[in-house]
Amino acid sequence: MSMQTYMWIGLALALVLVTWYLKRPDITPELARQLLAEGALLVDVRSPSEFSSGHLDGAKNIPVDVLGQRSGELGAKDRPVILYCASGTRSAMAKRTLRAAGFARVHNLGAMSNW
Q1: Contact 80, 105 (CB under 8 A)
Q2: What does pTM read for this prediction?
Q3: Is residue 90 part of a domain?
Q4: What is the CATH number of the domain that holds 82?
Q5: Which of the ends of the chain has fewer CB neighbours closer than 10 A, N or C?
Q6: Which residue would you say has higher pLDDT here, 46 or 20?
Q7: How many separate domains does the chain show?
Q8: Least confident range of 14-18, 32-36, 84-88, 101-105
Q9: Are 43 and 93 in contact (CB under 8 A)?
């Protein structure tokens, strides 16, 4: 293989690792349940149609693409917020959105199946 081929393979591998790192869960299901019992908010950032086809009990649906405009619905910025979606990608994006909006205690559960 040529040096250019090795460079492309390395770049692709780096992209996969960065993508995994950015969307990985940062909270365990056990800790998420504990925070919910203490008053945290559970937010499903999938589309309304995905939400209506099934969601975690007690979750509020705010799609990631409107989360910035609807962040006021989440209450106090120091209240813990637990986010999830189908794979972890949208919940990771939602976490960055809420952190940028000043929410201090935001957690990415990742995929709904992690529950």
Answers
A1: yes
A2: 0.82
A3: yes
A4: 3.40.250.10
A5: N
A6: 46
A7: 1
A8: 14-18
A9: no
